[in-house]
Each structure stands twice: as C-alpha cells, then as structure tokens.
Amino acid sequence: xxxxxxxLFVAAMMSGAPAAHAVRPDEIMKDPAKEARARDLSRExxxxxxxxxxxxxxxxxxxxxxxxxxxxxIASGDSDKQVIDFLVARYGEFVLLKPRLSPHTLLLxxxxxxxxxxxxxxxxxxxxxxxxxGRATDPSLLHLTEEEEARLERLLAAExxxxx
Amino acid sequence: MIAEAGHYALVxxxxxxxxxxxxxxxxxxxxxxxxxxxxxxxxxxxxLFVGCSFTALTMLHVxxxxxxxxVFENSHSMxxxxxxxxxxxxxxxxxxxxxxxxxxxxxGLVAAFGNNLPLSLRAHVLAVQGWIAAAFYLFILVTxxxxxxxxxxxxxxxxxxxxxxxxxxxxxxxxxxxxYVGFSISFSFAVAALxxxxxxxxxxxxxxxxxxxxxxxxxxxIAMGSYWAYYELGWGGWWFWDPVExxxxxxxxxxxxxxxxxxxxxxxxxxxxxxxLLSILTFSLSLLGTFLVRSGVLTSVHAFATDPARGVFILxxxxxxxxxxxxxxxxxxxxxKQGGLFAPISRExxxxxxxxxxxxxxxxxxxxxxxxxxxxxxxxxxxxxxxPFFNLTxxxxxxxxxxxxxxxxLLAWKRGDLFGAAQRLMAAGVTALVxxxxxxxxxxxxxxxxxxxxxxxVFVIAGALTDLAERAGLFRVALASAIARARGFPRxxxxxxxAHAGVGIALIGIVCETTWNSxxxxxxxxxxxxxxxGYQLKLDDIAQRQGPNFREMIAQFTVSRDGETIQVMTPSxxxxxxxxxxxxxxxxxxxxxxxxxxxxxxTNADGAIAVRIYHKPLVLLIWWGPVLMAFGGLLSLSDRxxxxxxxxxxxxxxxxxxxx
Lengths: 164, 660
Hints:
The structure holds 2 protein chains of 2 kinds. By secondary structure, chain A is mainly alpha-helical. Chain A is built from 6 helices and no strands. Chain A is 57% helix and 0% strand. By secondary structure, chain B is of the alpha+beta class. In chain B, strands 2, 3, 4, 5, 6 and 7 form a 6-stranded antiparallel sheet that branches. A 4-stranded antiparallel sheet of chain B has the order 1-10-9-8. Chain B has helices at residues 2-29, 33-62, 69-74, 81-86, 92-113, 119-143, 167-196, 201-232, 243-268, 272-294, 301-306, 308-332, 347-379, 387-404, 407-410, 418-424, 426-443, 449-472, 479-487, 491-516, 621-637, 640-644, 651-655, and strands at residues 518-524, 529-532, 535-546, 551-561, 564-569, 572-576, 581-585, 587-591, 594-603, 609-616. Chain B has 23 helices and 10 strands. Chain B has 4 domains: 1-163, no CATH class; 166-403, no CATH class; 425-516, no CATH class; 518-616. Chain B is globular and about 80 Å long. In chain B, strand 3 and strand 4 (551-561) form a beta hairpin. Chains A and B meet through helix 1 and helix 5 of A and helix 7, helix 8, helix 9, helix 13 and helix 14 of B. Chain B: Required for the biogenesis of c-type cytochromes. Possible subunit of a heme lyase. Chain B: This is Heme lyase CcmF/NrfE family subunit. Chain B: Pfam families: CcmF_C, Cytochrom_C_asm. Chain B: It is found in: Cell inner membrane.
C-alpha cells in the first residue's frame, strides 16, 4: 500500500516505481538458520534512501548493500546485537525501524502505556465522582422509584394481551 | 474552453460555499426561515458546480487535451480509457478536486435527505460544511489549480505513474475519500451542537447513520488499498505501517470509537461531551491525514521547507479547524448537560472500555507517525519509527480489547452481570480453548503465540454467535420459535454480530499469513520446477508481448499438486516506455482462502529469471474480515430505526414554513 499511496500522493516526486524484488537469489546464505536470522534482522533495519521501507522490502541498491553487509557480519560470526550495533555505529539511529529507548525517544515509548493508564485512571475517578454525585442528589437513581414501578406494571399489563 | 468552464465552475462553487457558511447562521440567529433555508439550496447548487468542474477535468483527461498542465503531466494518448478516467484523481490537483466533490456530495445529501432535521440544526450543519468547503476551494484555486494551461501545448503527455495504472485506482481513492470526508458530517453536527448549545439522544440518532456510512467506506477503502498493495507491489506485503497508511488508520480507529460512543449516547443519553469530542477528533485526524500526504512533509521535512506553499496552506486550514473546533468545545462543552448514569459493569461501561482502547491505539499510531517529524524539527535528530515499533505497541492493545468484545453485547444497559455474561460465554471460551489445543497439537512446537492469537479470534467469532443464539433463545426454546425470534431481530443486532465476527476473521488471516507463510526465492529457467508448500510450479516458458502503452515479459507456470495439474499462472513484468519505469504484475492462484503468489524479478544473462513464489495460507481472510465488518455496518445502516430517523416533535412548526 505504501508505494501505491506514496506514488498517489507524491506522484510528481516519484520518477518511477521500480519493480519490487527485495532479497535476490544470489544473496541468500547457504545456512538456512543464518539466512532466517538475516531476514529477521533485515526487517528491523531501514533502507535509508527509501520512504519507510525496511531493507528486506526495498530493492534500492543501498538496501542490497546493507543486506549483503548484514549477511557478511552474520557469516563472520557476529551476534544479532553486534550486527545492529555495527550498523548503528556506522549509520546512526536512523537505520533502526524500532528506535532504542533513550532520553530522546522516552516520550515515544512511554506515551502508549501512559495514555492507557491515564485514561483508565481518569475514567475511574470520573466515574466515582459522578456516581457519588448522583447518589448524593438522588440515592435511588440506579433503581426505579415506586411511581416508575407502578407505571411499568401498568404498561406490562397493557402489553400482555397483545402478546401471548 | 472546457478547462476555463471547469475553473469558473469551481470559483462559483467557492462563492456559493461562502454564502452557505454565513447566511444560514445569521438566519438561525434571527430565526429567519428563509435565510436558514438558503443552506439547502446553496449546498445543492455547490454540488452541481463542483460536479461540473470535476466533469470538465475528466473530459480533458478523456480527450487527452495536453494543453492543460495536469493532463500533460499525468496522461498519455495511448492509455486505456479506464486509466484516463481514474488518472483524474491519480495526481495531487485532481485528487483534491475529488476531495471537494465528495465533500459537496455529502453536503448535498444532508440538504436533500435532512428533511427530518430541525431547521436550525440543518442550517448550522450545512454552514459548517460551507466553511470546510470554502477553505478547500481556496486551497485548490490558490495553490493547486488543475485547469492551468501550457502556452505551447506538447503533442504527447508524460503518462500516469505505472503503479497507479490499475483497477485499484478506480476504487481505492474514491472509497477512502468517501470515508475521510464523510466524517466531516459528524464534525459539522458536533460543531453545530456546540454552537446551538443543545444536544440530545435525537442528535445521536441523526449523526449515527452518517458516521456509519463514512466508517463503512473507510473500512472498505483501507481494505481495498491493502489488497491492491498486496497484489501490485510484488512482495506480498499487505500492511507496512507507512505514515500514509497510518494517516488513514487513525481516523478509522477514532471513527470506530465514535460509532460505539454514539450508540451509548443514542440509547442512554450518556457520554455526550465525549461523543462530541470524538466527532471533532475523527475529522481532525482526517484533515491531519490530508496534511501529511498533501504537504510532502513525509518525504522529508526539508522538501516541505523548500516548497512550502501547499503545505503551509493546509497547515493553516488544519490549525483553523482543529484549533477553532477544540476552542469552541472547551468554551461550550460545559453547557451540555450530562445524563444517564451507569455502573462500571454495564453495556455502557463496556463501550467506554472499547473507547479507551481504541483511542489509546489511535494515540499510539499518532505518536509513532509524528514523533520522528517532531524530533527532527526540534532537535535535528533523525530516527525511524517503523513496523517493528507498531507491532510491539499496537498489537498488545488489541488483546484486551478483543477479549472484551464478546462481553459487550451480552451485558445489560445501566448495570450488567459480568458473571452471567461469562457463564453464557462459556461455550465460546471452550471452543476457543479447543482451537488452541488442536492447533498446538497439530503444529507441535514452532510459533507459540500464533495458536493463542487464533484462539482469541475464535473466541471473538464464537462470542458474536453466542450473542445471536442468546437473543434468539436457541437451545432454550423450540427451534421454530428461536428462528422466528431471530427473524424479528433489529438489523442492527445482526450488524453488530457480523462486524464483530469480521474482526475475528481478519485476525485469523493476519496470524496465519504472518506465521505460516512459505516462500521460495530463486533463479529459474524454462522447465525448472519449484516446490512450495506441497505445490509444484513448473516454469514452462518466458515470452515477450506488446501492450497498449507498455512492453511486458510474461512467464508461464504450470501449477500441480500430487501430480495433478491445477492451473496455469502467468506473472509478468511491464516496462512503460514513457516513464521508463516498470511494474511487476504478480500472478495469484486462489485455493479456498489461501493463495499462491508469484512475482518476477530480473533476468540473467543465461536466460534464467529471478522468481519469488509465496504460499500464503488463509491470506484472503485478512480482507474478508473487513468486508464482513462493512457488511455488518450496512445491515445496521439499513435498520428501520435509522431510516425512520429520530422522532420529531417540531413537525407542526415545520409545516408552517414558507415554501422554498
């Protein structure tokens, strides 16, 4: 959807959408376990010249270079963390599609849980205040009054013959 | 001549919008029926003139009048007729014209079918629509005029971006815009209610069908876009957490929340202030989406800074409408009386919980989309927020929400019985657990989360069925009378069940596709065979062919399983000469809800071709789910209660109006 929408919206800027064909056959590593690791890592890494594409999705030349680099590091025995650290040292935080928790991404990571907890808390406080206010003014608000009960009886009695 | 007529019609529409945005309000202030009724005529006339303008642009594209910049830049005389028409909105100027056309369409619908609205409410609603329309007409006329001419017309056009030359372009943007812009109606209703300082259950009943209609279109529009990306882009992805997609997802999440809170307001006269706020937020998010994709701010903050005319204009519109409506809200919301008390465990409570999770999910998408932009503007640091972030934060929010979905409809209004609901959901819960156990046994090992997620989906679907069974009294009364009862259900009951089941079905599709997707990537020569998920795909032949405005290379695969030939698949790769770019046309083979997917890459010197083959189990459920949700919405929309509209005590007064 991305490329279509992107081209819809910034059609003028796109000189042409290349055919997508990310991982090429010649890049694939012999060891399937290592290849799987490379694929998983590739999905977390951004192709820096593309619009929000991972290097696993992108077919830009840079993405291919990065994919080969990731596989090179894995082949030389790096752990996943070492590969990521290597790339971040080289290209900066921008290469990570999932930013690390650090002072300048604190708000990003904390907002979702804070919104949930804050919203829940606000609802609880609000609900308590309202129900206590409701009870203070009219303790029977959650129940029917006698008058209402009587009216209900009458209505039900009137309805009954039609039904059956 | 046609171009000038279209341009002039647009200017006239602006004039009408300006009248529509002022006169009816004065009329309402002076209680002048004639002035208030001006809104109706201007809204209809506006629709007529924008319609003319849009038709003019379409005609220019159809006859390939390359003396118009917009046609020259986005069309080609050899392009098939369908794409000449869809190409009208396949570019910035044309898509903005479609935007205002749909806005005028909704305004016209309110004018034509809003006869049961109180006159002053209708006047206010249409006036607010007039403000929005005027702002966007100005935007088009000042910064994005589609009718500009070229002094020396070229002979041939530059053609439309090949990725867009697809049937998807005919359906996806109009659907999406019907959704986006449809929420302007609930926004206008909310602002009108704030201006009038009056809001009641009848208001919610008027707003609900419009919100529902917009929601249906947005649901289908997003699903359609996702399927289009899936088959067109050639690597089988269907959701990328791209800012552009997020821009459409945010109004959808807020709109879904709005749909549910409007129910509470209609039925119980509660959550008024919140419903108003959600109406404002939903359309604000639609506007934000328009800003994000139209200003170029997403491509890079710098691109925005170097050519700021459009971006700044939309930013101004955004600030004006969001800031204005929120200020009005802060000022007037306290005048709206609260009503309808309820206990935390009740239908209302469940819907509030739904709203809490949906708005948090919306906030998550919001911050994930805008944080990188904000950070770059403030500190210059560049970070990326992509799919891994959203999967980690957005996904978990839906687990409690989906767990709660089956409980909602089973709880009573005002004060519900959670234990009773749990008892009635016992069968659904057991079904879900059995599904988890069976899956676990079947796949033994591997992904542990996937069976749990599918269990959750089964719970949601079974819960929706339980609700229907409970209402019909199935297993408690005789089958015949249960069926009779089911026939008597309001259609909204069926709608709720279908929509909720649709969520579960989509979830099954998502989990299956992401967990058990199998893939083959390799170089193939004619008569090579690839084995994927039990299917044998033999490459028969590679051929070249000439299309109307492209050349294509077609590969033919014969698909067989256990020695039995099933079908022939023909993926292709197209080269568009005018733009010197290419597209992959993936070939799809549907087996039940699963699909085989082939896309082609580059050819080698020795005649081998790079091939990507996927087997995507139950992938179609991802889109059947939303279709079912939209169908549920449609059922609710056809409910008699909404068609009849709200009771109107003012009927006698309306009869005394002067004829128009």
